[in-house]
Specification:
alpha/beta, Rossmann fold, 7-stranded mixed β-sheet, two-stranded antiparallel ribbon, 13 helices, 9 strands, 37% helix, globular, disordered C terminus
Length: 348
């Protein structure tokens, strides 16, 4: 059986909604034209890497169950104008192009020149698809229609840019994973007579829109504070932890938020490199070092809470589970290199 047809059958058996139009589009667009890597993960309902940078940035095509869910919620019709923020290798744009037909238009924006060039190469045969570089997410690029039927944002953002919501036609809507790097809520934001109404579509974890932000890096102070605060809420509800540790965690979050929000994270030091003085004296590291004695004991629990476990409803029954290696890194090691933000798309 064709691997895509088999995947669609398994997804339907797992109660993932795929109508006839979406099935036809998924059968028409071959994912192997949008990544040069082994497509087996995709046919096992996992994200498929399409591009890696020399410095560790990774971009993926979303897992098929996530693609189906997003496209179902977009309620696509023939002739619509759809904007896609984040290229996903061009694959999702190609499927949307099939669904809106030649009467419709798909506009793909991405902040990475490398990703834009990649998508242009893969989409050259689609006359109803445009791929543009987004120089500044806060500023609308030239050539964007004033009225958009649908907008799909494929990477995590705190909030969509104002210009993007202002482009939604009456009755149009965007779908976006909004939140911090560790946790987002998939939001449908619809323009109803000039009023924006939000619908919560569930919790997700997406990587960033920009491939540069997926490169291994430390979080900024406010992002780290958000992560620790969220973990603290879970710990309070589910684990018996001394009040002193909870109080210290609250104080750590407060101290991190006292640092400037635009403070750049310290540079990651790779094996064999010497720490420069600027990194050693960085106020974020100073705060963490001051709290290191008690926080190091708490870190295994925190690491467990930060771990993202994906579901694969369309995986074959004999699919081998992915075993995650225990790296044995301590608290300091994790903070020097394990906050890469390379989370794959996730539905709990």
């Amino acid at each position: 059986m064709d691997p895509m047809l088999a995947l669609i059958e398994r997804l339907r058996n797992a109660s993932v909604d795929i109508d006839e139009r979406l099935e036809a589009a998924m059968m028409e667009v071959d994912v192997r034209n949008f990544s040069d890597l082994d497509p087996t993960p995709f046919f096992h309902d996992r994200p498929l890497v399409f591009l890696e940078t020399p410095t560790g940035g990774v971009k993926t095509i979303s897992a098929p169950h996530m693609i189906a869910s997003l496209l179902l919620n977009l309620e696509l019709e023939t002739g619509q104008t759809v904007l896609l923020l984040g290229s996903k290798g061009g694959y999702m744009g190609a499927i949307i192009a099939e669904l809106v037909g030649p009467e419709g238009e798909v506009i793909i924006l991405d902040p990475s020149s490398e990703v834009v060039e990649y998508a242009l190469e893969r989409l050259h045969s689609y006359s109803n698809v445009r791929v543009l570089k987004l120089d500044d997410i806060a500023i609308a690029p030239t050539g964007i229609p004033g009225q958009l039927s649908r907008v799909l944002i494929t990477g995590s953002l705190r909030q969509p840019p104002e210009w993007l919501t202002n482009c939604l036609e009456d009755g149009g809507f965007l779908i976006a994973p909004l939140g911090n790097s560790m946790h987002q809520t998939l939001i449908k934001r619809e323009n109803q007579g000039g009023e924006m109404l939000d619908t919560d579509l569930g919790n997700v974890v997406f990587g960033p829109v920009d491939i540069a932000e997926s490169e291994p890096s430390l979080p900024g102070p406010h992002e780290l504070a958000d992560m620790l605060e969220e973990a603290g809420l879970v710990i309070r509800d589910n684990f018996a932890l001394e009040h002193l540790h909870i109080s210290r965690l609250d104080n750590l979050v407060a101290n991190l938020r006292q640092l400037p929000e635009d403070l750049k994270p310290p540079k990651i030091t790779h094996p064999g490199e010497d720490d420069d003085k600027e990194s050693r004296d960085h106020p974020l590291l100073k705060i963490l070092e001051d709290e290191g004695e008690w926080l190091s004991g708490l870190w295994p629990l925190m690491a467990m809470l930060f771990d993202v476990r994906m579901t694969h409803p369309g995986a074959p029954d004999d699919d081998e589970p992915q075993v995650e290696e225990d790296t044995g890194r301590d608290f300091r090691g994790d903070f020097r290199g394990d906050f890469s933000g390379e989370h794959e798309d996730f539905i709990p």
